[in-house]
Amino acid sequence: MGQSWDGTTQEGRDALDIAERFYRAVSDPEAWTDACANVSARFGGSTAMLFVDRHDGILPIAFPGFSDLALRLYGEHFHRVDPWARVARRLRPQKNELSCFIGHEHVPVAEFEETEVWQDLSRPHIGAFHLLGSSFNLGDGSHVLMGLHRTRDREPYAKHDVSRLRPLLPHLRNALFLTQRLQETESLANAGLAALEHLASGIAIVDRAREVVYVNAAMERLAGSGALRLRPDTALDRPSSRSQLSLTNLADQARFVGLVEEAAQLGAGGAIQLRFAESDQRLILLAMPLPRALSPRPLSVGPLDTGRVLVIVRDHARPVALRNDVLKALFGLTDAEIAVAKALLGGRQAETIAAERGVSLPTIRTQVRHILEKAGVRSLRELEALLAAP
């Protein structure tokens, strides 16, 4: 589960401000530059970069502090030879989905000084010498890299900077994830409830008590599935005609209550694979803070509608069927690990898989542990949410 911050401390206020800037950019793409510049400055940096790393090049999101020439040079050539980007790509199969690292721990200073990135790009154009980097997957094959830079005359980044940045990364991922989904439906200039209504996934906006503020048609259909329901809130002492979103499985409900409580306080939220008592149907539920631009009746004035939560549910009754080469490229899984992952996500039991593959149960469990470590998730439920996010 992610972290929420104490707004009475300076560190907590800084973290909340950074997270809110990320969510503001959901409905205003130009705000990404401001958000990245702000987070870099909060960490003592002077420049930053945020981009989607693709096999055919990069998709820039924000490069505050870069001149047009520096950005063009990086996009045309230097992203291919950037030693820090190479570190992020090399570490991706082994590190967590939300990874965070210090550049000179992997590329020593003397080695970096000899690179063409320093000699021909950074020293003459942007001055970036120290790096605090992070990388993660958005769940659809998109690999995002972010780098915060300090100049040579500043102190290098240290472990406490990693500790401060890491809790912010789930919010960055949430904001980019939601931006991507809205872009698939209509222009962000018109984003709002209309965009949510056109999503194939079930969408609900709930408050801290899980009372429903809005549901789209897909969520209304899913409410009759047996794993979740929309019902009048009988727990309130006052009369209420509003519905409350709840889950039928008690363990799922307890987890859902915690996720909503966390996201309502601007924590990162999380994912649940919903369980059915007498059905093979499978649903994935994601809960995250609600960007104010998507709120029908905002309660607050910031970019996040504090106290409200965006809930996304998608039907995953069919097993995930990603190609083997995609799984290898995304997570560095071996052929054996891919076979085990697909079998488990298809609903097979570990004991059955061990018997079919002619190996011991401890071997299967070891492979499962390696799969989760490479994908950067804690459970098979989170793995499915990652591989088949709405």
How do the strands and helices of this protein lay out in sequence?
Layout: H1 10-24, H2 31-42, E1 47-54, E2 57-62, H3 68-81, H4 83-91, E3 99-102, H5 103-106, H6 109-113, H7 116-126, E4 130-137, E5 143-150, H8 159-165, H9 169-183, H10 193-198, E6 202-207, E7 212-215, H11 217-222, E8 228-232, E9 243-247, H12 250-264, E10 270-274, E11 283-291, E12 304-315, H13 324-331, H14 335-345, H15 350-357, H16 361-375, H17 380-387
Antiparallel strand pairs: 1-2, 1-5, 3-4, 4-5, 6-7, 6-12, 8-9, 10-11, 11-12
Helix pairs in contact: 1-2, 1-9, 3-7, 14-16, 15-16
Can you describe what's shown?
The structure is a single chain. The longest helix is centred in the first third of the chain and has 15 residues, at 10-24. The protein is globular. The protein folds into 3 domains: 10-181, Beta-Lactamase; 191-315, Beta-Lactamase, CATH 3.30.450.20; 324-387, Winged helix-like DNA-binding domain superfamily/Winged helix DNA-binding domain (Arc Repressor Mutant, subunit A), CATH 1.10.10.10. The strands form 3 sheets. Strands 2-1-5-4-3 form a 5-stranded antiparallel sheet, with helices on both faces. A 5-stranded antiparallel sheet has the order 7-6-12-11-10, sandwiched between helices. The chain has 17 helices and 12 strands. Strand 4 and strand 5 form a beta hairpin. The protein has helices at 10-24, 31-42, 68-81, 83-91, 103-106, 109-113, 116-126, 159-165, 169-183, 193-198, 217-222, 250-264, 324-331, 335-345, 350-357, 361-375, 380-387; strands at 47-54, 57-62, 99-102, 130-137, 143-150, 202-207, 212-215, 228-232, 243-247, 270-274, 283-291, 304-315. Helix 15 packs across helix 16 (361-375). By secondary structure, the protein is an alpha+beta fold.
